[in-house]
Amino acid sequence: MNKRNQFQLLIILGIFTLFSMGCVEETESGGSYCEGAVSPYSLPDNYISQTAKDAIFAAPNWYRNVGDENVPVVVVPFEFPQVFPVNPGLTKEYIRSVYFGENNGSLNDYFRENSRGRFEMLEGYIADPVTMDFDTAFYNNGAPTGGFIDNPVLHQELMEKVGEQGLDWSIFDTNNNFLLTNTEVQVVFIPSIGGLGAARPGNFDIQPSNANSPISISMQFVFADAKRSDETTIEPIAYNFFTHAHELCHGLFGLPDRYANGTCGTGAGARYDLMSNNCESMEMNPVDKMWLGWLSPKIIGTESMRPNPGRYCYLFENDYPDRKGAAILYDENAPDQFWMIENRNRSSSMFGFDGQIPKEGLVIWNVNLDTKHVNLVGAENYDGLLTYEGYGESAEAAYADTSGGDDIPAMLLYPLPINSVTSPSFELRNVSPAGREMTCEF
Ligand SMILES: [Zn+2]
């Protein structure tokens, strides 16, 4: 074959490839799914400006321990002697297994899966149960607002009593500035009250037992409950596992709540985000994962922005542990926001960590780059306009073909808020049924 014929063949192959990528075929079930799907991870996104990329990928400045930063965690079971004695199941071995275990469904496994192996829970210290000198009434008295968990006197006594057990807190002061923060150590207090979870700030000084100088404390403490001592169970933390994970996200990473009215499964993340749902088995949302440096999705521009403008068929793989089933959607005419799309599937976790999402499929988020608000988009309305901030209902916000044969409506993504805009930035159609591999054309 001479050079000229080779060239002609390449042109023909190229046209065929372009055509087949956007081609739609009728499937046996009658639903039409796109063909020749390409993973966004294999596509260049160098046509997206560096300015846009910087704005999208930069974590909000209140996020912490971004990337590969692993922080030692100190776990302290404690009791109020009369009203809430410690649950006898809170042994060191049990706490070590739930917090730092490997491949047993521990909190360590939870964060290792969400971070694709980037974040691990480091065992800093597991204390013997601490007995407070007084009961809750004493610490409620004089507490700033919410009762004893808000009382710095309680925080300080807990830390000092752990020091009396032999822990020299100054070992965590890695930058030797006599100030402990959440980027150096995360402290978790576990009372046996049976229903509580909270992250609370504490600012005070302590005198470490083995150091000459006092150390200042300025950190978010995690409080997360075990079952009461009279509730017989061999696993006193298991029932509250996702509350422990949720509160750790506040403490370790500075993540915000996304509840509406403090109710589980409501609000901006509904039942697809641990920060709005600590009551069910739930992963963190993909935007948080990206901002923490755990996901590096490619960016897909609108049809007209693409080097070869037009519609394409995209593949979203929920392929544990790589988890390449996510992408950013970006419209240069709406540069104050972006969308993120992720294939969510209950089978994605070895331990069922995403086991209670209400519906599997492509889950879409709208992110406001000015406020950094992350909002689940209501796929069941197909116009992309319903977001969950402020809504009370839980969501089945996943886009997938559940019609059993009939075409389902295209899903339109309009920039938010709607004002004079008349055309959507993206029009998703021909979505496949839910599965570990999903395809969708836009
Ligand atoms: Zn919270």
Describe this structure in words.
- There is one protein chain.
- This protein has 442 residues and is of the alpha/beta class.
- The chain folds into 2 domains: 175 residues, no CATH class; 183 residues, no CATH class.
- The chain has 8 helices and 18 strands.
- It is elongated and about 70 Å long.
- The N terminus is likely disordered.
- The structure holds zinc ion.
Architecture blueprint of SSEs:
Blueprint: H1 3-21, E1 24-26, E2 32-34, H2 50-57, E3 72-79, H3 92-100, H4 107-114, E4 122-126, E5 130-131, H5 136-140, H6 152-164, E6 179-180, E7 186-191, E8 197-206, E9 215-224, H7 241-253, H8 286-291, E10 299-301, E11 313-317, E12 326-330, E13 337-344, E14 361-368, E15 374-376, E16 411-413, E17 426-428, E18 437-441
Parallel strand pairs: 3-4, 3-5, 3-7, 6-9, 7-9, 10-12
Antiparallel strand pairs: 1-2, 8-9, 11-18, 12-13, 13-14, 14-15, 16-17
The protein binds zinc ion.
Zinc ion is lined by residues 246, 250, 257.
* Poorly predicted tracts of residues: 1-5, 9-30
The residue fraction in helices comes out at 10-25%
Hetero groups bound? zinc ion
- Judged by helices, strands and strand pairing, the structural class is alpha/beta
Q: Biggest β-sheet: count, sense, barrel? A: 7 strands, mixed
| Count of helical regions | 8
Provide the β-strand percentage band.
15-25%
Q: What is the residue-mean pLDDT, rounded to a whole number?
A: 88
What is the helix/strand order?
HEEHEHHEEHHEEEEHHEEEEEEEEE
